[in-house]
Amino acid sequence: MIKTILKLPFPSTTFECEPTLKYLIGRDHELVFVLLDEEDNKYEYSINFEGIEAYKCTYLSSISAEMVEAYDKLIDCGRSDWLIEIEKQCR
């Protein structure tokens, strides 16, 4: 079951460029967005993640119908096949 954790407070069409994933320290990362408003003012928005074991990125040309539901959101996909495989590798 897909659960929405965060909905972006702005549409992704306002991104100046693609978001970047920055390595911080240990297994911590920061997802950074640079936004433009109507007057072309730039704003930086970020989401921090701690204790990352793995992450997966799928680009527009490869998304599934279910992924369209997640557009502009951070979601929890539950116990997906991919998560189960990662858990097995960590044991």
Task: Compose a concise summary of this entry.
By secondary structure, the protein is an alpha+beta fold.
Describe it.
The structure is a single chain. The chain is α+β, with helices and mostly antiparallel strands and 91 residues long. Helix content is 15%, strand content 32%. It has a 3-stranded antiparallel β-sheet with strand order 2-3-4, with no helix packed on it.
Keywords:
2 helices, 91 residues, two-stranded antiparallel sheet, three-stranded antiparallel β-sheet, alpha+beta, 5 strands, 15% helix
Strand-residue fraction?
25-35%
What is the alpha-carbon Rg in Å? Answer: 15 Å
Largest sheet: 3 strands, antiparallel
Overall spatial form: globular
Please report the number of helical segments. 2
Instruction: List segments where confidence is low: pLDDT < 50 over at least 5 consecutive residues.
Output: none
Task: Provide the structure class.
Answer: alpha+beta
End-to-end distance: 24 Å
Instruction: Tell me, rounded to a whole number, the average pLDDT.
Output: 86
What is the share of helical residues?
A: 10-25%
| Secondary-structure element order, N to C | EEEEHEH
Major β-sheet strand ordering: 2-3-4
For the secondary structure, the number of strands is 5
